[in-house]
Design a protein that fits this description.
single chain, 315 residues, alpha/beta, 5-stranded parallel sheet, 3-stranded antiparallel sheet, 8 strands, globular
Length: 315
């Protein structure tokens, strides 16, 4: 049966109203998306994942409260925070008759990456959610109004680039180093399992600008026959860990690179323009360090992961 004009108009009007509501929801998701990030930051700062893990991977709110630093008056607020974290999949939640009907929060595959000593990405997420990293985005419109070339959003906001900030702010430097070690450890655990073939036939390797050697330590552990070393600036080498199978060498990659069968270049978190200007110098240094007798087997290994390049592109 054909619809009357009034029915067609009513249906069209309802569709238009639904489209408007859907559009509003989309904008609301963008506008309040930061709440998810800040809720995760609060969970990390309060060590909620550790609190749940210490209870065997699942815990009620009263059990969580006993393990975190929280003012008693904020318990009800913590319940709201946990609601955000369960909706976003950071934690799971279910009712438990055995606990008097209390909600029981559990670790999910995502939050299991926030606990333990192996594959723990908490230090990296804490770094990325730090105020120094978040604040440049609040003034991003002002950065777009400046002529190119110019400072990165990070330097535009703080007056220093990421690496200068790392050198001059001890607390941030410590946070940065821990974050990079955690990130390298996580990525390299996958790399050595999925791309282990590239290390076959190599007896020595130098990780250029390898920081505290998180990636190199993973390689040395997985391939004990490879003599691994890290080339870094002297102040970084001064804080490098001891008692490992990795050798730390102070130097500048733009001047020279120690001799080895292979050079390891990770996707460094710097702006692409910086790499365009200096990549030729890096390549020249790397090629010159490969011994002539190893010309056929000498390699430059590069883990240019798109994710790693994208993470701090703005910084």
């Amino acid at each position: 049966m054909a619809l009357s004009k009034e029915q067609q108009h009513s249906s069209s009007s309802a569709d238009d109203q639904q489209a408007v509501l859907d559009a509003q929801v989309q904008l609301w998701h963008h506008t309040f998306g930061y709440v998810n990030s800040m809720a995760l930051k609060a969970a990390l700062d309060l060590r909620i994942p550790d609190a749940i893990n210490q209870h065997g991977g699942s815990a009620t709110l009263p059990q969580i409260v006993t393990k975190v630093t929280l003012h008693p008056s904020k318990t009800a607020c913590l319940r709201r925070l946990m609601r955000v974290l369960t909706v976003t999949g950071v934690f799971s939640v279910q009712h438990s008759p055995a606990d008097g009907g209390e909600l029981v929060y559990g670790l999910t595959p995502a939050s299991r990456l926030l606990v333990g000593s192996s594959l723990n990405v908490s230090p990296f997420l804490t770094l990325m959610l730090n105020t120094l990293f978040v604040s440049p985005f609040l003034g991003l419109h002002e950065w777009f109004q400046q002529e190119m070339p110019g400072p990165s959003p990070f330097k535009f906001t703080h007056g220093r680039d990421l690496w200068d900030m790392n050198d001059h702010d001890a607390s941030f430097g410590k946070l940065f180093d821990k974050g990079m070690v955690a990130d390298s450890g996580f990525i390299m655990d996958i790399v050595v399992k999925e791309c282990g073939d590239v290390f076959k036939g190599i007896s020595s390797l130098v990780d250029v600008a390898g920081g505290l050697g998180g990636a190199t330590q993973a390689i040395a552990k997985a391939f004990p026959h490879v003599e691994c070393s890290v080339l870094e600036l002297s102040h970084v080498v001064a804080s490098a860990p001891t008692g490992t199978d990795v050798k730390y060498i102070a130097g500048d990659m733009f001047e020279s690179v120690p001799s080895a069968n292979a050079v390891f270049l990770k996707g460094r978190h710097q702006t692409r323009s910086m790499w365009r200007r200096k990549s030729c110098l890096i390549s020249s240094s790397c090629l010159s360090m490969v011994p002539s007798e190893m010309s056929k087997s000498g390699r430059i290994l590069s883990s240019k992961l798109d994710l790693a390049i994208t993470r701090l592109h703005l910084f």
